[in-house]
Amino acid sequence: MENMPFCEAETTDEARTCAVILLAALVPVTVAAWLMVLDDGVGACMTSGESCNPDGDVLWAVSVVTFWCSAVVGVIAVALPSRRPLARRVRPALVCVQGALVAATFFTVLGIA
Q: Which positions, given as ranges, span the membrane (predicted)?
């Protein structure tokens, strides 16, 4: 995990803190992406069907799936009991996956435009 500095948690508590931060950032990041998309003319697509992205339906589905998967992975990363050895190995990986899913949610929402 040398290439991903945000995934380098020294302790399981640091990884849990990262998971909580990513969970707290998920909704604001998604709302910010939607505000950028709606400001970019997608509102016309939603209201009148003009100038719509042909891949918008697929990207909409992907963004919903990545949003909920990020939330589920984040809850699992936070809920793992720290005293178990498995948690020390699995939690940092879950946080990395959660961060990737938050980014995927953001970019798929932006791709709808």
A: 20-38, 58-80, 92-112
